[in-house]
Amino acid sequence: DAGVIQSPRHEVTEMGQEVTLRCKPISGHDYLFWYRQTMMRGLELLIYFNNNVPIDDSGMPEDRFSAKMPNASFSTLKIQPSEPRDSAVYFCASTLGQFGYTFGSGTRLTVV
Amino acid sequence: AQSVTQLGSHVSVSEGALVLLRCNYSSSVPPYLFWYVQYPNQGLQLLLKYTTGATLVKGINGFEAEFKKSETSFHLTKPSAHMSDAAEYFCAVSATGGGADGLTFGKGTHLIIQP
Predict the structure, then answer these.
(1) Of A40, A76, B18, B69, which one has the fewest beta carbons inside 10 Å?
(2) Count of alpha carbons within 13 angstroms of residue A104, beta-carbon side
């Protein structure tokens, strides 16, 4: 099992550019979560999906953020336009029911 | 709503000494509780979890935690610290084990091991 795979590992972009983060959950997992980690705010839940359907996006900070899950093996988190305050580590996690999350290695986003 | 408070953003212990990382939670329903460890530039790895049943939970790498409902606590311990334990530790709570509503994390505790 390859675990949760996120790409890219690092992303540096200029303010105003569109950024797309990608996640491949563990096969068979029915929940997928996107988290953001910053020094100031710690780990924040942004959005989660169940069986590819968005359930709760109340953690998405602004309309500049959007997430999709077109199929059970792929999800994206998009920021358009990006701003320096979006700089953070973004984690994807997946789980099967209530047995605990498996996290990806994260994408470190830097917006300059 | 659930919340987690981790006492001490930094904890320093000597190698071989007892490790105690404190976690208190608030939950409107019986909680599911988790401890995760994060090594530099890596994702979060599950150390242990409490769902139901035995209140003393054993995890990986010699860690254990005890769920105390009366104290709303879930402190993490390890009898003898090793240099490799140096990392960031996160306590988290969920109403349903993470499958239905996501995890709420504490701010984390940075564990420093002194040689």
Answers:
(1) A40
(2) 29
Phi, psi of A98 (to 5 degrees): -105, 30
A18-52 tens-digit pLDDT = 999 999 999 999 999 999 999 899 999 999 999 99
Nearest to A42 by CA among B95, B38, B113, B34: B38
Paired strand residues for B63: none
B108 touches chain A (CB under 8 A): yes
In angstroms, the CA B75 to CA B6 distance is 9
Other CB atoms within 10 Å distance of the CB of residue A4: 24
Cβ-nearest to B102 among A4, A42, A48: A48
In this structure, are residues A46 and A77 in contact, taking their beta carbons and an 8 Å threshold? yes
Burial class of residue B1, CB neighbours in 10 A (0-12, 13-18, 19+):
exposed
